[in-house]
Design a protein that fits this description.
Layout (H helix, E strand, L loop, with lengths): L7 E2 L3 H9 L8 E2 L3 H6 L7 H11 L3 E3 L6 E3 L6 E3 L8 E3 L2 H6 L3
Antiparallel strand pairs: 1-2, 3-4, 5-6
The structure holds zinc ion.
């Protein structure tokens, strides 16, 4: 069985900028990801072709946002909303634009 190693560390500058963009308090620690992922999610939302290409190339989902219905990539998912289909303590990611106005 393959294993995955996740290193927890304080959010870096790009990550903090992301949380500021979606109006969310950064976590004290977050899992390691590629720095390019942090940079890609900071690309302005209106550049949908870029986000679609990035999501496709990196294997992220490209699905409609459950709130606004506009497609977004897994790399730019922000806050979550409850998902009654999967039970308590589970949620569905919403797009960065909806995350900006959605309460934490
Ligand atoms: Zn949305």
């Amino acid at each position: 069985m393959p294993t995955v190693k996740i290193t927890m560390r304080p959010p870096g500058l790009l990550s903090r900028l992301w949380y500021r963009r979606i109006n969310q308090t950064p976590p004290a620690l977050e899992g390691s990801t590629r720095p390019t992922g942090h940079l890609a999610r900071l690309v302005p939302y209106p550049l949908r072709r870029f986000h679609h290409a990035y999501a496709t190339a990196r294997g992220f989902f490209w699905l409609p946002c459950p709130l606004c219905g506009h497609e977004f990539g897994g790399h730019e998912a922000g806050k979550t909303i409850p998902d009654p289909a999967t039970g308590p303590n589970r949620g569905r990611g919403i797009c960065s634009r909806c995350s900006r106005t959605h309460p934490e």
